[in-house]
């Protein structure tokens, strides 16, 4: 499955669960995660989507570590089942 197909299915699932979903881009910072999510309780988290078998670039890994180091939840998702489990986890289910 292509990365964009995984991303769409997971984002649609998150919306069904009541999460706000934003395409996240930063003009002055490359390699930020693909999507920002806001759960019902206000928790904010990020997901970087990857095609199956692909890994983070060194720049993406650095950005993930910067965010994680400040207590921000950042997930790397390469299949729909894992993506849905992240959404359920962040929903408290």
Task: Offer a concise description of the structure.
By secondary structure, this protein is of the alpha+beta class. It contains 3 helices and 4 strands, in the order H-E-E-E-H-E-H.
| CATH T-level fold name | Trna Endonuclease, Chain: A, domain 1
| Helix/strand order | HEEEHEH
For the record, give the distance between the C-alpha atoms at the N and C termini, rounded to a whole number: 26 Å
**Unreliable runs, pLDDT <50, ≥5 residues?**
none
Fold and architecture overview:
Helix content is 39%, strand content 20%. It has 93 residues and is of the alpha+beta class. The protein has a single domain (3-90), classed as Trna Endonuclease, Chain: A, domain 1. A four-stranded mixed β-sheet has the order 1-2-3-4. A hairpin with a 5-residue loop joins strand 2 (35-38) and strand 3. Helix 1 (3-16) runs parallel beside helix 3 (80-90).
């Amino acid at each position: 499955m292509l990365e964009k197909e995984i991303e769409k299915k997971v984002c649609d699932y998150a919306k069904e669960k009541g999460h706000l979903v934003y395409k996240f881009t930063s003009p002055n910072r490359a390699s930020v995660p693909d999507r920002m999510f806001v759960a019902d309780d206000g928790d904010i988290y990020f997901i970087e989507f990857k095609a199956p078998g692909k890994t983070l670039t060194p720049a993406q890994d650095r950005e993930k570590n910067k965010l994680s180091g400040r207590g921000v939840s950042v997930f790397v998702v390469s299949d729909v089942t894992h993506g849905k489990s992240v959404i359920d986890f962040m929903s408290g289910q």
